[in-house]
Design goal:
Length: 427
């Protein structure tokens, strides 16, 4: 009798574990199917079992059920992640400070390091991967290898599809340039500059610029690999191959002979060339731009700097968390240079600034301004996607559905297609 009670106590404990394990909702159809199978199987064997064997079988079935439920829950749950370091972590947005990196640690063992000044957005996580937007700067990734990994990194119009690898990815949104270095493994890059995916392998480097419609794959820093890049139909883009370095002997032979005598010797070196703000921005030295603006006088710069410098200062201010200064520069750009690309781009940046502040109404207004002034401009796809997100937040998916359908019609290969399909209900 004592053994029976012990077994019943064990069965009760297992039942409690089963109840606690079923935290993830299960559809009624799946629940009903499983219940019918379990009851049917038990009915077939019930008469053949002694009371003691019935309890033993029930214990075994419950143990299998607990293990199966636990495995199913772990298998189906999307990856989680934690952020270490950085100057900002607002929902899916992660910003590394100008002086120190930030790190994202995923539950499958993958990790992603955002270099100083880098900004990322984790768009979505899956059971076996994630979709990450590199909005600016450099990120180094180490993705754990699985059979069915599903990792995608998006930089502007470029999509990097990963299985298991380690790489460094840089994106400059101002000049629309991507730089990808493969350390381990391989990736596929999809872009509007090539007809098909571009395979980049360990030791290779992929670089491309949207403005010049050029791209290049090289072996590290050396020999170009033009055959790895499928050219698109037509003459819309070019594959740039760096010229091979001249052999030392040939270089020496080609060099002009030195003069027989030198009358004077100049020992003093010319002063080093001062980098422009655009160059500082390109290499991520945002703080130097702000320091330089303070040295000139912020108000004097806002009212008198050339458009290019004012745009660089606005970007540097945004990247270093000086939102008020960034907005002031962008508004000055629109006021001082009301026509042309700078004014329209400032409207888009103002929309992005207000969206990151969780101000969807203001963001929508600025995205609409950009689309009205530059309907086919360089940021048109991003502005339409931003307006779609803003309307979804303020008025719901049904109100944003026409925008989602417009995005799918205009940009069927765009980076926000998945979000648009979800809002439009066509997924």
């Amino acid at each position: 009798m004592g053994n029976w009670r012990e077994q019943l106590d064990q069965l009760s404990a297992i039942a409690t574990l089963v109840r606690e394990s079923v935290a993830t909702p299960v559809s009624e159809e799946v629940h009903r199917d499983g219940r019918e199978r379990l009851v049917g199987t038990a009915a077939l064997h019930r008469r053949a079992l002694t009371p003691r064997r019935r309890v033993t079988v029930a214990l075994a079935a419950a143990a299998v059920l607990v293990g199966g439920l636990g495995t199913w829950r772990l298998w189906s749950r999307p990856l989680s992640y934690e952020v270490r370091g950085g100057s900002g972590f607002d929902g899916p947005y992660v910003s590394a400070s100008p002086l120190s990196p930030a790190e994202l640690l995923f539950s499958d063992g993958s990790n992603l390091q955002a270099d100083p000044g880098c900004r990322l957005r984790v768009d979505e996580t899956y059971r076996n991967g994630a979709r990450v937007f590199v909005e600016r700067g450099t990120a180094t990734s180490h993705v754990s290898h699985e059979k069915a990994s599903n990792w995608t990194f998006v930089a502007g119009p470029f999509e990097v599809h990963v299985t298991g690898t380690r790489f460094a990815l840089s994106w400059d949104p101002l000049f629309e340039e991507i730089d990808l270095s493969l350390i381990e493994g391989s990736v596929e890059v999809r872009s509007p500059l090539a007809q098909g995916p571009i395979v980049v392998r360990a030791g290779q480097r992929f670089r491309a610029a949207v403005s010049s419609r050029s791209l290049m794959v090289t072996e590290g820093e050396g020999t170009p690999v033009p055959s790895a890049v499928p050219a698109p139909e037509g003459a819309g883009s070019s594959i740039v191959a760096a010229p091979p370095a001249s052999p030392p002997a040939a270089a020496a032979a080609a060099a002009p002979a030195p003069p027989a005598a030198v009358a004077t010797t100049v020992n003093s070196k010319p002063p080093p060339r001062r980098e422009s703000w655009q160059e500082l921005l390109t290499r991520g030295d945002f703080e130097s731009i702000v320091v330089g603006a303070n040295a000139r006088g912020l108000e004097a710069c806002i009212t008198g700097c050339p458009a290019g410098d004012l745009r660089s200062l606005a970007d540097a201010a945004r990247y270093t968390g000086r939102g008020a200064l960034a907005e002031k520069c962008l508004l000055a750009l629109r006021q001082r240079f009301p026509t042309g690309a700078y004014a329209a781009a400032a409207a888009f940046m103002l929309g992005r600034t207000h969206e990151t502040r969780n101000q969807p109404t203001s963001a929508q207004r600025w995205y609409e301004t950009y689309l009205a002034e530059s309907p086919d401009g360089e940021f048109a796809a991003e502005a339409l996607a931003g307006k779609m997100r803003a309307v979804t937040t303020t008025r719901g998916p049904s109100s944003a559905k026409p925008l989602a359908l417009e995005y799918l019609r205009r940009y069927p290969q765009g980076v926000h297609v998945k979000t648009a399909r979800k809002i439009a209900g066509t997924e």
